Amino acid sequence: MDKRIEIMKQAVHLFSLKGFHQTSVQEVAQAVGISKGAFYKHFDSKENMFVEILKQYHDEISTEIANFQQVPGSDSKDVFKKKLEIEIERTLSNQEFFMMVFKDLPLSDSEKLSSLFGELRQSTITLHKTILLDTYGTDIEPFLPDLVTVLEGLMQQYIITLVIEKKHVQISRLVNFITATIDAVVDKLETMEPVLTEARSPAATMEESFQQVAEKIKASEADPEKLLASLDLLKEQVGKEEPQDFLIEALLVYLKQHPTIKNEVIYLENFI
What we know:
Blueprint: H1 3-18, H2 25-32, H3 36-42, H4 46-66, H5 76-93, H6 95-103, H7 111-136, H8 144-164, H9 171-187, H10 202-220, H11 225-238, H12 245-256, H13 262-269
Helix pairs in contact: 1-2, 1-6, 4-5, 4-7, 5-7, 5-9, 7-8, 7-13, 8-9, 10-11, 10-13, 11-12
């Protein structure tokens, strides 16, 4: 096993047992069988290692969901269930990571970690917005913040129950129940009013979506310049009175080829 990966694995285990603040670099190093000095050859600090752990976990789930290929004969609801299943299964299979975050979230004294969590949180929201739009269509758009809240609330509470109370359930059964719940809410939307949706113009919504894609590129790409330049060109074309449609389409296709930003670009596409 790569030493860097082994260090992160042992750190997650210790953090899940003792908490981030209560675990020292020395303890992590001893668990791996290396010196404290050797630890710092791989990570500048315990906080930077924590950042790497969070990014790796988030990117692995996001990439697996983004790369999921629809099985011939399946419909959008089948894809929706499968993506929820991937997210729940990955979370439950990494219970030590979940307990690490749940037990001792080290945000209060770290601007860097607070910023990272905000970024990952926004990326997760965008991922869930994209999944919901792909499944239920653009008619649900005014209710997206509410539907994301309902979806995430259901998933989080079930995961907490399963992990903390050590319950075992069939994941497909859980996914079917969550999907049926969202179906029931969507079916009643015409009789409801949005709660969380703010009154804002389409231009503001599009601007926010462009910003989300840019932030994700900066956070996830080692060499972001080419992607950012393409995004800027797309934004420039969209803002023109007579945009070149073929160029907009080509830029969207190019940007969606990158798994780390695919979901954000799909969401942006809904406003173009």
